[in-house]
Design brief:
The protein is α+β, with helices and mostly antiparallel strands. It has two domains: about 1-40; about 45-245, Alpha-Beta Plaits. About 30% of the residues lie in helices and about 15% in strands. The protein is built from eight helices and nine strands. The protein has helices at about 5-25, 30-40, 65-75, 120, 150, 185-190, 195-205, 220-225, and strands at about 50-55, 90-95, 105-110, 130, 135-140, 160, 180, 210-215, 245. The strands form four sheets. It has a three-stranded mixed beta sheet. A two-stranded antiparallel ribbon has the order 2-3. The chain has a two-stranded antiparallel ribbon with strand order 4-5. β4 and β5 (about 135-140) form a beta hairpin. α3 (about 65-75) crosses α7 (about 195-205). The longest helix is centred in the N-terminal third of the chain and has 25 residues, at about 5-25. It is globular. The termini are far apart.
Length: about 250
């Protein structure tokens, strides 16, 4: 066999092999979902030298203030407080009361952006993933709406979109039949801005929310964490959350 014929035969073998693999993926999509999800992950664009986090000072959350919730709804095109129960809510205000002392505390709860996120562990397609900088996201292109992540999340921080959506925000696309949750306003963060909830809280003058790089000892959030005691919600799970709370 000539060299040219041998090269042609090798090319044909590679082509047929790739075609067979593509056909297998078309018949059994699940076989290819994990490598595809990894290939589409944006972690290459960010660095693990940074880990974005938030410090919530519950002692500064005042009654009647819902600036963080309103800002989140406006930023991501969510509805108002009178929306149906099936609509999404990326951040919610939780009221706590100590049965012994009667002390009442209000705190915002959202995706905690865990170092070891249970939602990522149970996702069968790789749609739930964590960026190198610690932000936990959902790729709605490959989310199949199984809602395993909703069941796995101990913070009830994810929502399923039941309704057909209109007038969506260009920087925060959403999709019917998919799961979503707080993404720390990732497009704003990548542009060097604060998450909408943090910005709104500061504009109100309360400064209950502090955002920054918790890996940087010189960042404002790290310095504040050294001054005041803070804790995780459900510390017993060992998830090492990116959101910490003071005053609970």
């Amino acid at each position: 066999m000539s060299k040219q014929a041998n090269k042609t035969d090798q090319y044909r073998r590679r082509f047929l092999s790739n075609a067979a693999a593509a056909a297998t993926a078309a018949v059994v999509p699940g076989l290819m979902l994990f490598p595809v999800a990894e290939a589409r992950s944006p972690t290459e664009a960010v660095s693990n030298k940074v880990r974005w986090g938030m410090l919530v000072d519950a002692t500064k959350c005042v009654d009647g203030c819902n600036a963080c919730v309103t800002a989140c709804n406006n930023e991501h095109g969510l509805e108002g407080h009178n929306r149906p129960a099936t609509d999404a809510q990326w951040i919610r205000l939780v009221h706590l009361k100590d049965k012994q002392t009667g002390k009442e505390t209000k705190l915002p709860v959202m995706c905690q952006h865990c170092e070891h996120p249970p939602c990522v562990d149970v996702c069968p397609t790789g749609a739930s993933f964590k960026r190198a900088d610690g932000i936990v996201l959902v790729d709605r292109h490959i989310c199949i709406g199984c809602r395993y992540c909703m069941m796995a999340c101990p913070y009830k921080a994810r929502s399923f979109v039941h309704e057909t959506l209109t007038d969506q925000k260009p920087d925060s696309p959403r999709g019917k039949g998919t799961v979503e949750g707080c993404n720390l306003c990732v497009t704003r963060v990548d542009a060097g801005k604060l998450p909408a909830c943090v910005e709104a809280c500061q504009q109100e003058g309360e400064k209950a929310l502090l955002f920054g790089d918790i890996n940087d000892p010189d960042s404002m959030i790290s310095k504040q964490a050294e001054k005041i005691a803070s804790r995780q919600i459900r510390e017993d799970l060992g998830l090492n959350t990116g959101v910490r709370y003071h005053g609970i």
